[in-house]
Amino acid sequence: MQCAKNGQLQPFLHFAQCILLYLLMFGATDLLHHYFKTGNVYLESLISIQAMEKLSLQYRSLANNNLQSLPKDVFKGLDSLTNVDLRGNAFHCDCKLKWLVEWLDKTNATVEQIHCESPPEYKGRKINSLTAKDFDCITTEFAAYKSLPYQSLSVDTFTYMNDEYVVIAQPFTGKCMFLEWDHVEMSFRNYDNITGTSTVVCKPIVIEKQLYVIVAQLFGGSHIYKRDIFANKFIKIQDIEILKIRKPNDIETFRIEENWYFVVADSSKAGFTTIYKWNGNGFYSHQSVHAWYRDTDVEYLELTNKPHLILSSSSQRPIIYQWNKKSNEFAKHTEIPDTEDVYAVKHFTVKDDVYLCLTRFIGDSRVIKWEGGSDFREIQRMPSRGSMVFQPIEINNHKYAILGSDYSFTQVYHWDSEKGMFVKFQELNIQAPRSFTHVSIDKRDFLFASSFKGTTQIYEHVIIDLSA
Ligand SMILES: *[C@@H]1O[C@H](CO)[C@@H](O)[C@H](O)[C@H]1NC(C)=O
Ligand SMILES: *[C@@H]1O[C@H](CO)[C@@H](O)[C@H](O)[C@H]1NC(C)=O
Ligand SMILES: [Ca+2]
Question: What positions does the domain LRRCT occupy (predicted)?
């Protein structure tokens, strides 16, 4: 029941109820009894609820009520309180009571000593010995935002002409579908498409304000497109050698000393994983690193300021290549030991430490820490059931790792910096997920989850204050 609206009281019939409710709400049953016994209810003289608050409600007792919590703002506006008795209750000291701790800290009223009854770690603690810092009330969640009615493989985000875009590879319609953010409607809308066949990866790369898109296809070869600003469309500028790239599975882009590169992992037996370099007019093959291995994934990262590539293959352990400054090429550096059947490797950092998420289709996916050189230490294992992606993601200082599954729920893990490992966080229902991509627009954070068999899902990363 709303008793006051815009400072005005509701009609008189409500008014009497409001007074009653008000007194009951604050447990001022003594006052209530007193007023009704003596018939001393000066309704007419009460102009507003605020006026009543300023009346003589200086002493407030909520003692011996077995209360576990108190509604927030129960004392709001009661500036004249001088005594509050909350003894004899069974307070549950969780986020819902955080406001009381803050209020106790700043009120001038005398409050009798009170204690927490629960949770166990706080049982017997004096409530006024707690501080707001004792309550960890901020949590996050990936909340369903929208589903897009098509299957997808790669999802990438990029900034172009000061706007944020998303490009999604649709294998069955053969499209690279571009989405842009509508700042007025606050939603994603179609921007343009590049139409082809069996598209597996659409990789954007912006070089000197010019947008290029590497479109990898299983059939009909792979191509490079350029955004033509004047014609306002994508035009094909280049084909990628069909002899080297037969069955592309993954593409990464990177920059080493002012030069732009991309690398295509090729998963056919006769293909070559190849690095291409931008020469000002087009991309030219720079180095083929791996032949005959059926590479499923490539990862680019820098370790002690040196560029590295990690290649995952279905036929052998992940191989790490290191950039050689003299030859301007990658050279084999080491391999990750004791790791068979790794489908993909992705890295993340915690302070200066580099960690790797290793995806395995069946068995256990793993998190390992790179201790320099050829030394790795296992941090933890996660059971995998048909996993094709294990993606680390950082959103506003929260670190996650998302393990997709073809046979069960996708598991979101959250990094626990005290434990130095991931802990279970949330389950998502996505059919055959293939990539997870963080898209940050207008101070909002989205997670795009591609799906090979169902609909592409968008989640919004939301922050929840449990004390609110
Ligand atoms: C407590 O008393 C001080 C000094 O009289 C005053 O400045 C302050 O506003 C009071 N605080 C509250 C919450 O009423
Ligand atoms: C891109 O494709 C979608 C459907 O797949 C269509 O609705 C949209 O109009 C296309 N956009 C352009 C610019 O052609
Ligand atoms: Ca990759």
Answer: 89-138
Mutation pick for ligand 1 pocket among 108, 110, 111 (CB with most ligand atoms within 8 Å) = 108
Phi then psi for residue 455, to 5 deg, are -100, 150
79 lines ligand 1 (CB under 6 A): yes
Tell me, what's the pLDDT at 424?
Answer: 97
89 and 144 together in one domain:
no
Q: Is the whole model's pTM more than 0.90, yes or no?
A: no
Task: Give nearest CA residue, ligand 1 atom 8.
Answer: 108
Write out the residue range of the structural domain in which residue 16 sits: 4-133
The count of residues in the chain is: 468
d(CA 219, CA 246): 8
How many Å separate Cα 317 from the centre of its chain? 30
33 Cα: distance to centroid of ligand 2 (angstroms): 71
Residues 465, 346 share a domain = yes
* 343 and 466 co-located in one domain: yes
**Do residue 66 and residue 142 come from a single domain?**
no
The residue written with tokens 């910096």 in the block is 417
pLDDT tens-place string over residues 184-220: 999 999 999 999 999 999 999 999 999 999 999 999 9
Whether the pLDDT of residue 233 is over 70: the answer is yes
Average pLDDT over residues 392-417: 97
Which candidate, 338, 291, 287, places its Cα nearest to that of 313? Answer: 291
150 Cβ closer than 6 Å to some ligand 2 atom: no
Instruction: Calculate mean pLDDT across residues 155-174.
Output: 96
